[in-house]
Amino acid sequence: VSQTAYHRLETRMRRIGLVGEAAAVLHWDWSAIMPVGGADARAEQLAELKAISHGLLTDTETGELIEAATEDSSLDDWQRANLVLIRRNWVKASAVPEDLVVATAKACSECETVWRTARAEKDFAQVLPSLEKAFDLVMESGRAKAERLGLDLHDALLDDYEPGLRLAVIDPVFDDLAGWIPDFLDDVLARQSQAPEPLALEGPFPTAIQKQLGETLMAAVGFDFEGGRLDESLHPFCGGTPDDVRITTRYDEADFTSALMGVLHETGHAMYEAGLPKDWRRQSVGHSLGMSIHESQSLLIEMQVCRSRDFFEYAAPIMQDAFGGSGAAWSPENLYRLGTRVERGFIRVEADEVTYPAHVILRHRLEKALVSGDLKLADLPAAFDDAMENLLAIRPSDAALGVLQDIHWYAGVFGYFPTYTLGALTAAQFFQTATQADAAIVPGIRGGDFQPLIGWLRENIHAMGSRVSADELVEAVAGKALDPEVFKGHLRERYWGGAG
Amino acid sequence: VSQTAYHRLETRMRRIGLVGEAAAVLHWDWSAIMPVGGADARAEQLAELKAISHGLLTDTETGELIEAATEDSSLDDWQRANLVLIRRNWVKASAVPEDLVVATAKACSECETVWRTARAEKDFAQVLPSLEKAFDLVMESGRAKAERLGLDLHDALLDDYEPGLRLAVIDPVFDDLAGWIPDFLDDVLARQSQAPEPLALEGPFPTAIQKQLGETLMAAVGFDFEGGRLDESLHPFCGGTPDDVRITTRYDEADFTSALMGVLHETGHAMYEAGLPKDWRRQSVGHSLGMSIHESQSLLIEMQVCRSRDFFEYAAPIMQDAFGGSGAAWSPENLYRLGTRVERGFIRVEADEVTYPAHVILRHRLEKALVSGDLKLADLPAAFDDAMENLLAIRPSDAALGVLQDIHWYAGVFGYFPTYTLGALTAAQFFQTATQADAAIVPGIRGGDFQPLIGWLRENIHAMGSRVSADELVEAVAGKALDPEVFKGHLRERYWGGAG
After folding, report:
1. Would the CB atoms of A35 and B244 count as touching at under 8 Å?
2. Nearest CA-CA distance, residue A265 and chain B, Å
3. How near does any CA of chain A get to the CA of B119, in Å?
4. Which of A311, A486, B40, B402 has the fewest CB atoms in 10 Å of its CB?
5. B25 and A19 in contact by Cβ < 8 A?
6. Helices B484-495 and B418-437, interaxial angle, to 10°?
7. What is the DSSP letter of B44?
8. How far apart are alpha carbons A205 and A255 in whole angstroms?
9. For A49, which residue in chain B has the nearest alpha carbon?
């Protein structure tokens, strides 16, 4: 029997998917364990794989197969959804010539490499030329896609990280939060300072034990170590592939909670990847949705679950045992108070959930100014510091605490940051829905049984792949569109003790 | 200016080379750190990369470019040598249809995965069906190449691991050694038993310290840790890419010398890869020669250098310090005697250099019987045990000590084993030539300065890439063709104390 156009298209997507998986593992390797001398060659390898994928996706035959498959009335709903997504990816990819794809990938890889040193040396000037080159190429690609999709440049950038996401959606939500957070933060800090300080935990906390503890709690949540790993990297992330999910963290022997909460955060990402529908592996419809939904899964696990009183009831004795701690500092209530401590800090990845949106909003606003041309990259460090002072009332004393702290821009990633806060809002809605739907979820967390929660996430979110869009998913799961009030309610409940 | 056919061919080879580098890193990852659940997906990723390389190498345009480049009279010697090698690879690759390439790669990956469990459980029957499938596909590919090249099947298999290598070269040398070794071995063991036993080293030897010691000695030999790593894997190997060479070992806390000598062996491979001509990176002429020459580099470092009295003069105090040892057991002379202990053992990778050729010869003879069809895979375990009893007068008590011990056959690798012993012969000739050419080499080793030796290897061997063939290189470097008498002379010198 000869294959239908649709099935030949699936075969082609499978090839592209496999090349993408190879690239994902190489990227993980680079970030986690590659010796520094391998960087140039690795950048070339990744650029070549990108060129190959791009070639497979954009060649004439792909377009012909898409056209022919669109006429095929025998497709079921999943197949049809898959076809729509393939067409969308094909349109976007076809907008960018292969030379530009390769040049952009290489410039971003090179910039990322320079950033690693620049960050260690707190020296933005060192990375500026590479950043300018990468930025220009990313904008050139973005403009090409924007033109083909009939979008503004910034919307085309956003669309790469969350299909369908637009400035018109983000800006009102962020303006609302930016107006609300400063006063709420003042209130929270005032209440916090009136209460007795939580007891400090006495370190040091050896890295090996932190890692073991992380693995114990990952396994408890449901991470399968036969299908993934935990390693170290400068910038914690979740990489690899759905069948081999690799998360990373960085350890500080003076404080174990930062790495541990980071590990649990990445575990949320990992559970999503591992839970994607196997039958649609390497097809567009079988991939995870955009980064807002991805971030909702990590923040649901970290913020909604693992910083709750219920979680510390379960985890406090395990933490205490791991480090051989003793005394009242290790009580669930004290650990909960430490884990929900609010502070005006410099580092986004270490921020509490109250100040976190401010970190995102300031970056989003800087991206808007960069993309529109109102801000030059050379002026970014000062603009970054000003924006932080404006929203958080603190000013970084060096670039590692400021503009150099995050990898994103130096990896050519512009338009990604908003998804963190959209994810936080989505997480609040999903968790509210889940706990209302299944009364066993909260007692499960308190007793260390995460199966009810993970089962609900698997069924309602992970197994859906990209069958529906992010906004359709929120609507279908939570019964209403994205709503910042649920997130605010969660913050009031947790940080005002339900009083506000 | 439009590119010449030759330069377009170079561009194409560069693409193929980059895909090959990606595959090399993925293969290292698989062998060293991949969680078991990733195996199926990884097998598919590697098969896809192989299909892509194969497609690039065999498509019509490659053939046309080769034809056109052959007419180009402006090529220099390196370019012309490159072109000859590209043509040879193209002819071989074109002989095998892509379907068969993919099917073979997947069958071999699957078989390798099953072998890992079968070996742990000492159960050959478990892996037999996968092995039969992989073997049949490897032979089918081999027959296709043999036909195109006008070679016998076995010669076509050998050609994949050492271009130009033929049964007619191997068999007389191996028959000579197989006739010489048993009596020589009896003699050596008799002399050894008459002398006092060397003093045993008291363990345990913690893995972390073994690793540190390995890294210290790797660095002393010249390994650059900015361009490579040392890790653990079930079967020690040297993988990665020339700019990021990755060697692996396995540790035994009761005996540090096995892992350490393994590390130094792989360091020899790594130095070769790292020393290949950068200007010809990813071109056929810039790759290492066949596995005989590769093995000559590892055995030169391990056997000729690191098991010599001169080396132990330098390394004994470092080893003693590392483990906090004391007493006469840690003297250079005692460590040398331990390091040159001869024994009839089961495990090839732990064999001394006197018995090693017997391990290789028995495998080569079994391969001949398998390839000719005289031996069935189902009968391989018994045939393996018989052959070992015949050549080494010992019989394995289980399959892990016998037929399951090595990865090669289970990874679809048939025709590789002879290169180990050809490498040992070549190493003896190269080291003899080197020490005659530069009087600073031996005192350097005794004092921990490996620069004279490595400099000589770089210039005379590594930097040559594949500019000349293996036999031309031996002839050019050593002044005469491969000669087993030099190897025998080395063994007599070391194990008879120069008396025989």
Report:
1. yes
2. 21
3. 19
4. B40
5. no
6. 80
7. H
8. 7
9. B19
B99–chain A Cβ distance below 8 A for any pair: no
End-to-end CA distance of chain A: 67
pLDDT, position A500 = 37
Closest CA to B37 of A34, A455, A270, A221: A270
Residue B499 pLDDT > 60: no
Whole-angstrom Cα distance, residue B216 to residue B49?
A: 36
Residues B426, B445: Cα–Cα separation, whole Å = 20
Residue A32 corresponds to which amino acid? A
Contacts of B26 in chain A (CB under 8 A): 22, 25-26
- C-alpha dihedral (B211, B213, B217, B218), degrees to nearest 10: 10
Report which DSSP code applies to A304. Answer: I
User: Are A259 and A269 in contact, with CB atoms under 8 Å apart?
Assistant: no
pLDDT in tens, A359-390: 999 999 999 999 999 999 999 999 999 999 99
Q: What is the pTM of this model?
A: 0.91
Phi then psi for B244, rounded to 5 degrees? -155, 75
- Burial tier of B272 (Cβ tally within 10 Å: 0-12, 13-18, 19+): buried
What string of DSSP letters covers B64-106?
HHHHHHHT-TT--HHHHHHHHHHHHHHHHHHTS-HHHHHHHHH
**B256-280 per-position pLDDT tens digit:** 999 999 999 999 999 999 999 999 9
Show Cβ contacts of residue A146 under 8 Å, excluding neighbours closer than 6 positions: A152, A153, A155, A156
How far is C-alpha B417 from the chain's CA centre?
Answer: 9
In the structure encoding, which two tokens stand for residue A75, read together? 């497709």
Please tell me chain B's helix, strand, coil percentages from 3-state DSSP, rounded to the nearest 5: 70, 5, 25
Phi-psi region of B11 (alpha: psi -120 to 50; beta: other; left: phi over 0): alpha
Structure tokens at A421: 């806060």
* Residue B229, beta-bridge partner list: B246
Tokens read off for B279: 């200007």
Confirm if B203 and B255 have CB atoms less than 8 A apart. yes
Residues belonging to chain A? 500
Q: Tell me the chain A residues in contact with residue B37 when contact means C-beta distances shorter than 8 Å.
A: 224, 226-228, 243-244
Query: For residue B229, which residues of chain A lie inside 8 Å, CB to CB?
Result: 33, 35
Which of these, B112, B38, B143, lies nearest to B412 by C-alpha position?
Answer: B112
What's the ipTM?
A: 0.90
pLDDT at position B385 = 98
Selection from B463, B456, B467, B398 nearest residue B431 by Cα: B456
SS3 assignment, position B40 = helix
CA–CA dist B339, B261 (Å, integer)? 9
Give the mean pLDDT of B400-415.
96
CA distance to partner chain A, nearest, from residue B232 (Å)? 14
- Per-residue pLDDT at A498: 46
Sign of CA dihedral B288, B291, B297, B298: positive
A67 burial via Cβ count (<10 Å: 0-12, 13-18, 19+): exposed
Question: Which phi and psi angles does A254 have, rounded to 5°?
Answer: -85, -15
d(C-alpha B465, C-alpha B278), whole Å: 10
Q: What is the mean pLDDT of chain B?
A: 95
Is there a contact between A276 and A260 (Cβ–Cβ < 8 Å)?
no
Cα B38 to Cα A239: distance, rounded to the nearest angstrom: 13
Nearest to B240 by CA among A106, A26, A43, A111: A26
**Cα B105 from Cα B87, distance rounded (Å):** 23
Q: Is B266 a catalytic residue?
A: yes
CA B144 to chain centre: 25
